[in-house]
Write a structure and sequence with these properties.
The complex is a heterotrimer of chains A (558), B (348) and C (293). In chain A, 35% of the residues lie in helices and 24% in strands. Chain A has 21 helices and 22 strands. In chain A, the strands form five sheets. Chain A has a six-stranded mixed β-sheet with strand order 6-7-8-3-9-10, with helices on both faces. The radius of gyration of chain A is 25 Å and the shape is globular. The two termini of chain A are 48 Å apart. Mean pLDDT of chain A is 83; it is low at 539-558. Chain C has a single domain, classed as MetI-like fold.
Chain lengths: 558, 348, 293
């Protein structure tokens, strides 16, 4: 048998799981030595369960049926001793979130060396030399062996994970969302490194991700999982160019191609309400302006961070402006300052010709005009408050006149939660992610604001819901003339809905202008680097598209 | 045009930079200095508390003494003079502070001796008792707690947890009384009171054995109550680590169950446990007061009890300041030790 | 609003089912209800004469018999009657001291968690200071200086045992305030009052309730310890007071186990019942703990 890994009719059931459906149902997969396979799907589709079953790392509550043949040997029936020998030496794992997958109180060098010592006793000097070689391979200085995990950046930690995975020269590497929590540019570097090492050493690779573009850029073959089943499998480029299964189509459509006019002002939506026409161009009055805004934080060790370093930003009435940057670029601090949640160190915020008030009653009146939509709707809603209470919260704070119930109903309807009465008594946990985000938006709309500040409004949503929320923002703008400042790390989102884009880097705005101009002809190096970091799924079909963009979750590390 | 760093790690982290060896040593020095200053402030607070509890509260000691028929006029006059009760409160405080700095804690009403001398002679028995109990409780609590958590839900876990819960609900002095009644009075295996046999014994080894013989019951009583808490703390912090991702990593590497526990889970779970153990030093002190009272063990606890019953205010004030001060100092030391144990704290 | 009420009823039902799933918690609750009823009804069959030192019905230190199931004490009173009657003082002191302590802890914890800056720094410093101090030693000093009486004991226990609650509530407040829905409430225009009363307090209350239940247990132990050290109210019958008299009158050396065991076992039973209830409540409040029990 020449297959490196073969899954035959694999099913996994969790005892006590809420749904009757098994987490994984009848999965068949084969991987030849040296082959790279991508496993794609939305959260909860069972892709991680498949990966963990290969080394029998599932929790005790899981029952596994079918066969898992690693080099022809069934992992399910191995003795403990044999299983331990196969673990890491036969197949190793690059875990999701290196932050937690590394032991916080032990030096990374020890952690890389540990599996070597477990699997083949060697002298300390041999081990040290090998650790140095491995760190060298992942492009880290050998001195980092003495570091503790918390002393490394996210990208460095992921490199350590990769070095660790290669330590025992396994024939198969399983990478579970290896780049999820990383920034666009770091993500590209880590992906590059992993692919290069795996190819050089002729290892088999199973890469798991929710991001088709990432997988397509790395793997020869793709398998798409949906509700525990593999719904489509095939050669990467062919599969992306011509998806058959509706779910694959939805996943593929969620990743717009920057530069392709077909995706301009056209997020993927299947809503019957359709998309409004692109806005007529014409200069509107400036609604919000910042003048040389600066926010400086003082850290514990007397270091100062210039989170916002002299920003001049303008949002016009009825305009959608995308503020693009990596995490740590200061874009969220900028948003908080605009909302008056963070006092600026110097500079001014001017709304509708008036400077941002400082005394609390005037600030409250200001906040009626400018509303916030947060990244993760699950945590943006108090789990104890019903939809009605969540939407009415702002009305009660501002003691608005008129019938509260009527206003709530109107806001819910505006956020396209229809019929509103059915949603009112529901608690947030009973709603889907997209519906929760609509509740947050309804809560903002209830105060009839003129500007919406949306901080990564779709980053925590599944790919297929993402387009619907973006389409809602476009329709709200068309219907209510609502301006929006959308903060994102995702250039594709800017291409999808924004009129203008502002690129933020190290607390400064390095470039801004109309989306078509900036993304087609970036002037600043950083904008170019952002565009270049987008994974390239191969020669684009037609239309001269240069980049494909993935929607990446940028989880805020709290 | 701005230079872009070639390896673009997130900006904040690029700015953070590596702490140099010297910077780290400086950081440690600063840390220890800060902790020392904090401990000094806490000690000062203890001193202030000791002052106000005994003079500014409505139950002014002299008034209480006048009401108490057991106290003589001379004793009242002695208090009045020693505590400078005729001066304004602020000058009383300055005088009190000066006395403390000279190591003068006043004169005991009951023993007619300097309080500081009394405390010094009673210090060692207390250290012997609490030290023995602490070592036993830590060893027992951590070992049983680790076993219970690792075999979570097993019969061993259920038994050790239930035992710990019951012991947690037992008043220490009552447990001591029962031990006294059963093992000292009933079976006559151990002495009922004191630290040494009346009349004394000859020779060094017999003397040591004699003290050890007296130590058994008080030490077991104190250990029984204290280990239960350590067990629960160790168990829950290990259970908290049980689902940590790095344990999955360790298992995936091919480590045996034992190796995963010893090398990865326990070192992480120990850190919060150690903090809590030090934070609860007060528990040990409270235990010492009641256990020493029950077994008439001649330590600070018994001294406190004797001060309460007299009532001997200078002595009570002295024991309170010493006991509270000791706990404050212990915790400051724990903070410093912890910094060397946990690499995450070490850096910041 | 009927929707809200219906939801609250449903939520209460769900909480009860979750609590009832914990067998130990149910046992604790049952035991507590029994003890409370017994303590409330005690005056119906125990008269002042039964508890009087002068008109005691039995002989001195009689062992258990048909007339006195648990024997008599050093003046001839029924130990069973004393134990039942003693529950009244122990429960009152335990509950009142726990409420006082948890009340102080909740206010301090919420304020130091919500307001940053020097308010938080000062409150934390004070909390940490009192947290490490041996509470019993402080309580001893306090009750020596104040007039003897139940209220003194309650105050002495209450004002020395709040710091752990404050730490807990502060941690929970910080967790809640880190949630984006607080930022959303602020962006909607809500001020300190709105955030504290509408979001933080409802989220902290269940935790406080579980904490109070656990605190009653510790307070009852503290009460008995203070009484044993001679700082109780000698005019009231409490379990600690009984044990002190047992020791003072030489019952231990006389081997009068029937005088020593009942009050002690009563303390263990009540404290254990409160602890079991509290732990079950903690799980209902924080389901993540279930895996750790």
């Amino acid at each position: 048998m020449s297959e490196l890994l073969e899954l035959r009719d694999l099913s996994v059931n969790y005892a006590g799981a809420r749904s009757d459906l098994p987490a994984v149902r009848g999965v068949n997969l084969r991987l030849a030595p040296g082959e790279k396979l991508g496993l794609a799907g939305e959260s909860g589709c069972g892709k991680s369960t498949v990966a963990m079953s290969v080394l029998r790392l599932l929790p005790k509550t899981a029952t596994v049926d079918g066969e898992i043949l690693l080099d022809g040997e069934d992992v399910r029936t191995m003795s403990w001793g044999r299983l331990r020998a196969v673990r890491w030496a036969g197949a190793s794992v690059v875990f999701q979130g290196a932050m937690h997958a590394l032991n916080p109180v032990r030096r990374v060098g020890e952690q890389i060396a540990e599996p070597m010592l477990v699997h083949s006793p060697q002298s300390p000097s041999q081990v040290r030399a090998r650790v140095r070689e491995l760190l060298n391979q992942v492009e880290l200085p050998a001195a980092k062996a003495n570091a503790f995990p918390h002393e490394l950046s996210g990208g460095q930690k992921q490199r350590v994970m990769i070095a660790m995975a290669l330590a025992c020269e396994p024939r198969l590497v399983i990478a579970d969302e290896p780049t999820t929590a990383l920034d666009v540019i770091v993500q590209a570097q880590v992906l590059d490194l992993l692919t290069r090492l795996v190819t050089e050493q002729h290892l088999g690779l199973i890469m798991i991700s929710h991001d088709l573009a990432v997988l397509a850029a790395t793997c020869e073959r793709l398998a798409i999982m949906y509700q525990g089943e593999i719904v489509e499998e095939g050669e990467s480029r062919a599969l992306i160019a011509d998806p058959r299964h509706p779910h694959t189509q939805a996943l593929a459509a969620a990743f717009p191609t920057v530069g392709d006019p077909a995706y301009r002002y056209a997020p993927a939506t299947s809503s019957p309400l359709g998309l409004p026409d692109p806005p007529a161009t014409g200069p509107a009055e400036p609604l919000l302006r910042t003048e040389d805004l600066r926010v400086t934080f003082h850290g514990r060790n007397r270091e100062t961070t210039h989170a916002v370093a002299g920003v001049n930003l303008t949002v016009h009435g009825g305009e959608i402006l995308a503020l693009v940057g990596q995490s740590g670029s200061g874009k969220t601090t900028l948003a908080r300052t605009i909302l008056g949640l963070q006092p600026p160190t110097s500079g001014r915020v001017i709304f509708d010709g008036e400077p941002l008030p400082t005394q609390s009653s005037a600030l409250r009146a200001y906040r009626r005009q400018v509303q916030l939509v947060l990244q993760d709707p699950t945590s943006a809603l108090n789990p104890r408050h019903s939809v009605y209470e969540a939407v009415a919260e702002g009305l009660r704070i501002h003691r608005l006149d008129g019938d509260e119930r009527e206003r709530v109903a109107a806001a819910l309807a505006a956020a396209e939660l229809r019929p509103p009465e059915e949603f009112m008594p529901v608690l947030p946990q009973q709603l889907s992610g997209g519906q929760r985000q609509r509740v947050v938006i309804a809560g903002a709309l209830a105060l009839e604001p003129r500007l919406l500040v949306a901080d990564e409004p779709v980053a925590s949503l599944d790919a297929s819901v993402r387009g619907e929320i973006l389409a809602l923002l476009l329709r709200l703008r068309a219907r209510l003339g609502l301006a929006a400042l959308v903060i994102t790390h995702d250039l594709g989102l800017a291409w999808n809905i924004a009129d203008r884009v502002a690129v933020m880097y190290r607390g400064e705005l390095v470039e801004s202008g109309p989306v078509d101009e900036v993304l087609a002809d970036p002037r600043h190096d950083y904008t170019r680097a952002l565009l270049a970091a987008l994974p390239d799924p191969g020669p684009a079909p037609e239309g001269g598209a240069k980049y494909a963009v993935g929607s990446r979750r940028s989880e805020r590390t709290v | 045009m701005v230079d872009l760093p070639l390896t673009t790690e997130p900006v904040i982290e690029v700015r953070g930079g590596e702490p140099t060896g010297r910077g780290r040593a400086l950081g440690t020095a600063r840390f220890i200095a800060a902790k020392g200053a904090g401990a000094l402030v806490s000690l000062l607070l203890v001193v202030v508390l000791g002052f106000f509890l005994f003079r500014a509260l409505p139950g002014n000691p002299v008034r209480a003494m006048i009401a108490d028929t057991r106290t003589s006029v001379e004793q009242i006059e002695q208090m009045r003079a020693e505590w400078r009760l005729d001066l304004p409160l602020f000058q009383q405080f300055l005088g009190y502070l000066g006395d403390l700095l000279r190591g003068d804690l006043g004169t005991s009403l009951r023993y007619k001796q300097p309080v500081a001398d009394l405390i010094m002679t009673r210090l060692w028995p207390t250290l012997l008792l609490t030290g023995t109990a602490l070592v036993l409780s830590v060893a027992l609590g951590l070992w049983l707690g680790t076993r219970a958590a690792w075999r979570h839900g097993s019969r061993f876990d259920r038994w050790s947890t239930s035992t710990a819960l019951v012991l947690w609900s037992v008043p220490t002095f009552w447990l001591g009384l029962i031990m006294l009644m059963v093992f000292a009075v009933g079976f006559d295996l151990f002495p009922t009171a004191g630290m040494t046999s009346p009349g004394g014994v000859d020779g060094f080894l017999p003397a040591v054995l004699d003290v050890a013989h007296h130590l058994v019951l008080p030490a077991i009583t104190l250990t029984a109550v204290v280990y239960a808490q350590y067990l629960m703390v160790m168990r829950s912090s290990l259970l908290e680590e049980m689902n940590a991702d790095y344990l999955t990593t360790a298992r995936a590497k091919g480590l045996t169950d034992d190796q995963v526990r010893r090398r990865h889970a326990v070192p992480n779970a120990l850190l919060p446990t150690i903090t809590i153990i030090f934070l609860h030093t007060g528990l040990l002190v409270a235990g010492a007061v009641t256990v020493e009272t029950v077994f008439t063990w001649p330590g600070l606890g018994l001294l406190t009890f004797q001060a309460i019953n007299f009532p001997d205010y200078p002595l009570l004030q002295g024991t309170m300041i010493v006991l509270a001060g000791a706990v404050v100092v212990m915790n400051a030391l724990a903070d410093v030790v912890y910094r060397f144990l946990d690499p995450r704290v070490r850096q910041t | 609003m009927s929707i809200v009420w219906a939801r609250r009823r449903a939520a209460a039902g769900r909480l009860w089912r979750e609590f009832a799933a914990d067998r130990a918690g149910l046992v604790g609750l049952g035991a507590l209800l029994g003890i409370v009823v017994l303590a409330l009804l005690a005056p119906l069959w125990i008269s002042a004469d039964d508890l009087s030192v002068i008109s005691a019905p039995g002989g001195i230190l009689e062992p258990p018999s048909a007339e006195f199931w648990l024997g008599t004490d050093h003046v001839g009173r029924s130990v069973l009657d004393l134990t039942i009657y003693g529950a009244r003082v122990s429960l009152v002191v335990g509950i009142a001291a726990a409420l006082l302590s948890v009340g102080i802890g909740t206010v301090v914890g919420m304020l130091s968690g919500h307001f940053g800056g020097w308010v938080s720094a000062v409150l934390m410093r004070v909390t940490d200071f009192f947290l490490v101090l041996p509470a019993l030693v402080l309580a001893i000093a306090l009750s020596t200086m104040l007039a003897r009486g139940l209220s003194t004991i309650i105050v002495a226990i209450g004002v020395t045992s709040w710091p752990s609650t404050a730490r807990l509530v502060r941690a929970q407040t910080l967790t809640i305030e880190a949630r984006p829905y607080i930022e959303r409430a602020q962006a909607l225009g809500g001020g300190h009052r709105h955030v504290l009363l509408k979001h933080v307090l409802p989220a902290v209350l269940p935790l406080v309730l579980a904490n109070t239940t656990l605190a009653v247990g510790s307070a009852i132990i503290a009460e008995s310890t203070l009484a044993f050290l001679g700082l109780g109210d000698p005019s009231k019958v409490s379990w600690g007071q009984m044990l002190k008299q047992a020791l003072d009158t030489g019952s231990v050396t006389a081997g009068a186990w029937w005088y020593l065991l009942p009050p002690g076992i009563a303390i263990v039973a009540v404290v254990l019942a409160f602890t079991l209830c509290g732990r079950a409540l903690e799980i209902v409040v924080n389901p993540n703990l279930r895996a750790r029990r």
